[in-house]
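In response to reviewer comment 3 from the previous cycle, which asked for concrete evidence that the modeling workflow produces usable outputs, we include below a single protein chain processed end to end. The sequence was submitted unchanged, and the resulting structure tokens are shown without manual editing.
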Amino acid sequence: MTTFHSNLKYNVIETERHDFSLTDQKGRAIGFVWTIRSVTSTPGGGCGYNLDFADNKFFSLSSGTTRDGEGFGASTATFFALTRIEIEAEASRRMAVSRKRYTKKYGG
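The workflow returned the following structure tokens.
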């Protein structure tokens, strides 16, 4: 379990890495990674996020593009949702947007 804020406890459920079968001009493989976490909140502590979930258990998604399996550039904002289905749909949407962007940039 990881604590990023005093009142949010994160537990990694799944990390997935995807290769887009694209390479940049230096030959580095372009891909995408996402991490899904379960999150438990406790009262107080000021998490810095505007979370207004009735339940104190929810999910978070962090994601970003990779070069040769390592993150590069800015990652996307953390996404919070009540269900794993919402999180997985957002992960798929983000990956599709990234794939489209890098396919346009590097061909494929």
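DSSP finds one helix and six strands in the chain. We consider this sufficient to address the reviewer's concern, and the full set will be provided in the supplementary archive.
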